[in-house]
Amino acid sequence: MKKKIALLMLCALSAFFLVGCGSSAPDPGKEKPNPYVTPIIWEDTNTYSMGWKGPIELTDGTILSTQMNPGSPLSGQMIKCVASTDGGKTFKEIGTIASEHPSADFGDSAMVQLSDGTILCSYRYNRYNYPTSGKSEHQIRMSYSTDGGKTWEFHSVVSEHTANSPGYNQGEQRGLWSQYILETSRGDIQCYYDDENVCFENGYIGHQWWMMKTWNEETRTWENPVAVGRTNTPSLLARDGQGVVQEVAPGVLVTVFESVRTTSPHRGCVRMTVSTDYGATWNYVDANGNDNRKIVYVPEDENFSTLCPWLTILDGGVLMCTFMTDEDRETADNVASGVLDQSMKYCLSYDQGETWSDPYMLDERHPLWGPGVILLEHGENAGKVFYQSVLITDNGNVTVHKLGELNLPQE
Predict the structure, then answer these.
(1) pLDDT tens digits for range 151-202
(2) Are the C-beta atoms of residues 390 and 381 closer than 8 Å to each other?
(3) What is the set of domains in the chain, with CATH numbers?
(4) Is the preceding omega at residue 265 within 30 degrees of 0, hence cis?
(5) Could you tell me the sign of the dihedral formed by the alpha carbons of 176, 181, 184, 186, in that order?
(6) How many Cβ atoms from other residues are within 10 Å of residue 338's Cβ?
(7) Residue 59, CA distances (Å) to 62, 66, 85 in order
């Protein structure tokens, strides 16, 4: 097994943030957590379940998730809402979030329950009409539910554009992809999403930026696009996205996202940025305009990748970053092929993301895809960690999940 290393972010937050975003350094006398104590004790059994992307827990303790249904030439594709009322032991389908023509590139959804009880679900909607118009259409759409996920209505379009050529064959990577939804402590509703088009329009060909828009209830539109993860020069490749955002203190937002090394062969890594003004600005560059996106984890061998991170706030404000990686395989994945053979690991931060632990194994089975991890707050499993991902098998893809008991070091 190849030796790996987690890169620790050892700079103080005053240097870590953009100008004007200072913070105090951690107490040097604080005892570091024992790296030999397993911080989460995972149950031995792994349960097969419905669902896949982005599980959330409602205020009544129900766990919701989404599931893609390929449908048929007549019914089209569907995004289903699935629910568990027994702490994740069993799931059942309760509603259809959206349905579209079979030719649509459709899915990759995210959900959130707002403070008023409304549930939002975002998803990508891409159409490639090459045989007819020679154009490709890209959207991030939003649906909503007011009855716990049973019935859904169209809400809005977060972002959209039409490319004038088929795209990838001519070097125009202009898609809109993964998303995440956050309601801040002051009530801002934000949608984060992968955007290749904004890069293309600004001369950053082949880049992808992690972007965010804010919902305006008066105009019923998504406004004020803000870059959350990107580089500041076209020669420094950014493929930033597929992220999760958490508010770790009032107005202080931390996001982890999938990125790439800036040097060839540009394998995947997990980076993070921070905002101290409710997302108005992000510290992806420093005061001199240099790249300031911090590494959460990257394999030591530059041929291996870390992808698809998920960020969870545990007890005491401890941050948990879960990700998939091929670093324990004999040979590295060819990520561009889409054929991956990855297991699940996680790192912890006890100082709001300034430093991160070495990785712990979460699920050594492979190939796995798309982790989602939440801290349960209601019902018999309150205080436990719920993990969900997709296991790719010879008989098709199945969703798996398991529970973990926190064993974090005490202050």
Answers:
(1) 999 999 999 988 765 444 445 668 899 999 999 999 999 999 999 999 989 9
(2) no
(3) 51-366 (2.120.10.10)
(4) yes
(5) positive
(6) 7
(7) 7, 18, 12
